[in-house]
Amino acid sequence: MNASIIDPLQGDFPEVIEEYLEHGCMKCIAFNRRGTLLAAGCNDGSCVIWDFETRGIAKILHDNECSSPITSICWSKYGHRILVSAADKSLILWDVMSGKKITRIVLQQTPLQARLHPGSSTPSLCLACPLSCAPMIVDLNTGNSTLLKVSVSETSNGLIPPSRNKSSDGITSFTPTAACFNKYGTLVYLGNSKGEILVIDYKNGEVRAVVPITGGSVVKNIVFSRNGQYLLTNSNDRVIRIYENLLPLKDEVRTLDELNENCGDVNNSEKLKVIGSKCLILFREFQDAITKVHWKAPCFSGDGEWVVGGSACKGEHKIYIWDRAGHLVKILEGPKEALIDLAWHPVHPFVVSVSLNGFVYIWAKDYTENWSAFAPDFKELEENEEYVEREDEFDLIPDTEKVKAPDVNEDEEVDIISVEKDATFSDSDMSQEELCFLPATPSRDPLEQQDKCAESSSKLLDSNNTGSPSEEAGPNGLMMNHASSLLEDDAGRFKRKRKPSEKVLELQAEKVKKSSKSSKLAKPKNKSLVDQDNVTEVA
């Protein structure tokens, strides 16, 4: 990997923490397809949905039967369903709009990850990767599950059980296996403990191709890019690998059948490797050659141009960003809290990361004001300059210029009903209504907060003559509004607050002047009263 850092201004990727979200102790996150909603699984078994535009809570999903930490969370294609897996071995499917539980299935093992079938708007199948057994296809309607093959025998087509490693105390342990659907859900790509990528037709459980990974290390993560053209793997040898998908996106199964026929009579394992070489080809490798860190939750950006991975080291919150050519372009350093999950926004240059303490940090691009972009002849001034305008400069029809009539047909009807197709979501079914936003439902404050509000309102009534209790005089006599400043907590996290407008600041300044004048007029009046009292006493 070329470790040289290129100019970060060339790329559209996040650079700083814009703000953070806080609700209980969050463990995992996932965006919906449009990036308008962000779902987070919590430590108490609940699922909170944030409106990413307003950064407010849109809905909270909670099942009384589940109080264990959420291990993964997944949206359906059009956002109407959410599937969560929990540490109590359960899978829960939610209806997002109503907030009702559709079904709950308990597995034999704890699912570390669960993914809904991406080819259906109301999926009934999911892919679950348990802790200590092979990945399985689960029917959410019936609860039936089908184990997938995790390896291929050298002599036959038989099923080989999940890899087992004996520990020092003699107890047999299972190595977790990573798996994911391809773009349209026709195949499952599985990374096993032998350092292989298996291409599986999940409908009949047949292994269609095998792609060996250099080094043969255990595959911890496997994920496709949004467009389905690239596959990412994260192995135990601390290397992130990108493979280019050579199969057509919509005819994978038919192409695999043709490749199988062309191979002829060859040993089964060799035939699968030959087919695998025509399915995936190694494109890039990413690693930190100096620190040799393990990677956490690597993934692609929304457009597939960037690759991001979090450092798995304890006590640090570092996010590495590479371009697809293999250059390291940015290292984001957050608070001293371990990173456990991250996700890239599907459309915009946002990265959302989860810390071990349960906070969700939003990383955004640090935009600088460049007014010269609005006009090529715009010139920024260091200070004000006197300008003498021309006599006809502000005339409706200047004599020095000829104003061209706008080349617009004002009689033409404007179409405000039809929706233009977004190239980012070219596979959208326009007949299927997509859930992008949730209506906000106001909730009543607890009794304690209501009492505090009553106390604060009484304080405000008492302090009408002296100014607002949330304001203090600044060095220039202006009133400083604490509610509009940038708040910082003990851990050094910042939350963005709205700044007061210029009109508000002017009104505050006038209020200060009036209060100071009234205080000056009151002082001599008090003095004259004291003198009168002294005169009466002498008399």
TrEMBL record:
The gene is LOC106764821. Residues 514-526 have a biased composition (Basic residues). Residues 445-454, 501-513 have a biased composition (Basic and acidic residues). This is Protein RBL isoform X5. It comes from Vigna radiata var. radiata. GO terms for cellular component: Set1C/COMPASS complex. Keywords: Nucleus, Repeat, WD repeat. It is found in: Nucleus. WD repeats lie at residues 26-60, 67-104. InterPro entries: RBBP5/Swd1 (IPR037850), WD40/YVTN_repeat-like_dom_sf (IPR015943), WD40_repeat_CS (IPR019775), WD40_repeat_dom_sf (IPR036322), WD40_rpt (IPR001680). Residues 441-539 are annotated as: Disordered. Residues 455-469, 529-539 have a biased composition (Polar residues). SUPFAM superfamilies: WD40 repeat-like. It comes from the Eukaryota.
